Amino acid sequence: MMWTHQPSGSRQQTLTGKNRKQECIMDTVKSLSPFFEPNGIAIVGARSTPGFGFGLPKNLRDHGWADKTYLVNPNGGTIHGYPVFKTLKEIPAPVDLAVVLVPAPAVPKVLGEIGEHGIKNTIIMSAGFAEAGEEGKTRQARARKIALSYDMQVIGPNCVGVVNTANAFCTTEVMPEAYTPGKLAVIAQSGVFGQNILERVNEYGIYVSKAVTLGNRLVTNEIHILDYLHKDPDTDTIAMYLEGSADGEQLRHTIVKVTPDKPVIVLKSGRTSEGRAATESHTGSLSGEDNLYDGMFAQTGAIRAETLDDFTTYCRAFATQPLPKGNRLGIITGSGSMGALATDCAIKNGLTVPPLSKRLMAVMKEGAPDWMNTKNPLDVGPSGLFPRAFNAMMEDPDFDMILAVIAVPYSAVRFRLTEFTIEDFFFGGTLPLKERKWEKPFMIAVVCHEDLVSNFRERAEPGTPVFNTPEQPVRALAALWRYQNWKNNHK
Amino acid sequence: MMWTHQPSGSRQQTLTGKNRKQECIMDTVKSLSPFFEPNGIAIVGARSTPGFGFGLPKNLRDHGWADKTYLVNPNGGTIHGYPVFKTLKEIPAPVDLAVVLVPAPAVPKVLGEIGEHGIKNTIIMSAGFAEAGEEGKTRQARARKIALSYDMQVIGPNCVGVVNTANAFCTTEVMPEAYTPGKLAVIAQSGVFGQNILERVNEYGIYVSKAVTLGNRLVTNEIHILDYLHKDPDTDTIAMYLEGSADGEQLRHTIVKVTPDKPVIVLKSGRTSEGRAATESHTGSLSGEDNLYDGMFAQTGAIRAETLDDFTTYCRAFATQPLPKGNRLGIITGSGSMGALATDCAIKNGLTVPPLSKRLMAVMKEGAPDWMNTKNPLDVGPSGLFPRAFNAMMEDPDFDMILAVIAVPYSAVRFRLTEFTIEDFFFGGTLPLKERKWEKPFMIAVVCHEDLVSNFRERAEPGTPVFNTPEQPVRALAALWRYQNWKNNHK
């Protein structure tokens, strides 16, 4: 199936003919680095009353950017001890990034001044453009024309800009832990979504390299950012939330360049025409568009997440686990019911749950009680053989990935949790779970009271993701395999 | 499509011809009430060393059952201050329920003694029967023959028996909060599963009326229990975990009797042949069996859960929400992205997301900022209009159910949470959220840091379920509608 360009409404910039070609060339020659490593930042619309224009300068100062930050407001004065320049021209140093916080109606004029000053990179945070009715659309078209005339890269409008953990450059307020450097990059069309994903993965001990919120994509879009992150040495995995692509054909070309090197996880809304209507003022979408996206993602090796929960789950999996060599899942459990649910989910998601080898069966039968069936899923029940079974499965070359399902009544174990660690009881080994390295993907499902889930999470994460259902880790393992399988077929 | 009887392996008792007829008659004439309200309980296999035989007598005493509990062990003596009788015959009072905890090989003999003593209801907790190889299967067949010869109802073997919160009669150790009476009944084939579901729903403030773990279904099966719970005045909703049915045809007949009065939520594993193999020693299943179950559940108005997460979610929904009059979902959100994800999920699950009426648009446009699109999903952004929008939607007759998606960066709100309550900020009204009653189903998705999710849960649950993704509450609302729609079509 060919992926064809599907313009889909007012938030998309449809690039055709000369414009598109021109921009594609720009992609490759222009560097987006001032967005992430600026040498001088002008905050246009800084102000002394609460809001972004007040918070951002303080935020930048708190993270070591005071020397490179210059505030601009026609009223002058000082804010947070910074001098405020009345115009860009007054700034006594070179500036390579402008952050625009003025109200929407003032943006086009400001953009012209930025262009005149020779600044080639601009983040427009202000809302009130194509997302907000006819007047906003006209305004956005005007702003775009100005930006293009100055050959300017623009992130936004209607966004919260960027996060770069490597140098603590961040144009929006995030939780303190979000400054921790990690290897996952996040691209989100929506500012709220981007911030939410940061908070969400951080809860699991996963941290980002860079995050970009695209907003209305006046100039710079997900394709430019993908291209940039492809080459970013701090980024191993890219997670992207899209409502529609700026250019489907170009997106396909770019993803297919990235995926041999780095996994690209995609959550795309607008799967239904009603969902698309929810993201756009004019739908104008061809029916069947979602199937085209589905096909495109599958062809290019992108990993599509079905839900927000999947998206977070896949981020946790790719950020922490090695890729599997094959699709053979070994399941060890203390409850047959949970083993069955995990198996159903595995098969439906393209994994196999093969029988134990004769060798492994012999290992497990030794000292096992009569009632224990030595099969896969391996239900050890209350035999106390969990650590032996786990280690034998983990070392067995016949399994490419392992899932441990801890299903115990909390009423039965809660008073015993001080007697032993979960390593003693379930996994053996001399090292704490957190410090153990696995050669194949491994995840844990703790289907028990949330107190035991927390206990496991504290001891195992981020190295080993802990979930509270049998299905979610299986979906994550299957996503790892889908990606590896694509790579195998596209060498 | 006809639902045909699909025997599926060793855990199922295939009842055919005379046997089946005989048991069906027994269903209707026999009362299972001694399982839940015994007048005298014999614990056969009580012991003075750790294990069920030691814990259960203590447990019963702690919950007021000392006067009706009689311990049996050939060694005699005392346990927890109870006298221990060497045989059933020595018990100086009538007994209508026996709980068997002796090792599997001793069970058939004990069952004969129970029969001789005239006890018609027995729970066998011991494992080591059909789930544990050929010897176990032979043992189970022998035990079954004995039980049937005495016209005995037997729950188990390989189970943890029952919970009845109304009188605190419970044959297994559960968390203290599990004794709180509620209106949800739980049927689980697996003991671990049953206990887990109790713990899981309790975390959301949902409590059960009765719980039954079926184990290997020597005599009593899910059909008998469904029939009993149908008539149980303490039960409003029935949630059931099945690996396979004891009798598909009879299950269909029974569900279709129950669903006009009470919703039946079903999680069935063994959806794939590998999943069935995981629950059975011999698969012997016809391919396509799962489609038959799917069809049967749909025809009979049972609500099938796809995953463990869905199962818990549906329990929360049916235990707390009124049924919707139609399938028109109103979504109010602070982020367009989350509104789009919720909309996609709604459409895929049979709901509609209709536009706002002109009247409601007029209400919302009053005082709304320019950028606010008055549509459904209604993205109020940071306008402060959430309470007005919420209350207008809740009262609007054009919406049958409401979802509020709270998507805010926690970094932006965390210091302000002491300034106002979530009622002030999002829902208005003079009553705390917990005390407000809704006339249509209402759920909240808090797509934010887990601290804010907890904050909402503390203030809203159990009356209003709080989720942390936009999709899960939509699935729950759709399940409520599926059930109501079935009822509308089967009056």
Provide an overview of this structure.
The structure is a homodimer of 491-residue chains. With 491 residues, the first copy, chain A, is an alpha/beta fold. The first copy, chain A, folds into three domains: 1-11 and 159-320, Rossmann fold, CATH 3.40.50.261; 31-158, NAD(P)-binding Rossmann-like Domain (Rossmann fold, 3-Layer(aba) Sandwich); 324-489, Succinyl-CoA synthetase domains (Rossmann fold). The first copy, chain A, has helices spanning 17-29, 33-36, 52-62, 107-116, 133-149, 191-202, 222-230, 248-258, 273-279, 289-300, 308-320, 336-348, 358-365, 386-395, 410-413, 422-427, 450-460, 471-489, and strands at residues 41-44, 69-72, 78-79, 82-85, 97-100, 121-124, 153-155, 162-164, 169-170, 184-188, 208-213, 237-242, 264-268, 303-305, 329-333, 378-379, 401-406, 442-446, 466-467. In chain A, the strands form three sheets. A seven-stranded mixed sheet of chain A has the order 3-4-2-1-5-6-7, with helices on both faces. In chain A, strands 9-8-11-10-12-13-14 form a seven-stranded mixed sheet, sandwiched between helices. In chain A, strands 16-15-17-18-19 form a five-stranded parallel sheet, sandwiched between helices. The longest helix of chain A has 19 residues, at 471-489. The model of chain A is unreliable at 1-22 and 281-287 (pLDDT under 50). The interface between A and B is large, with 76 and 76 residues.
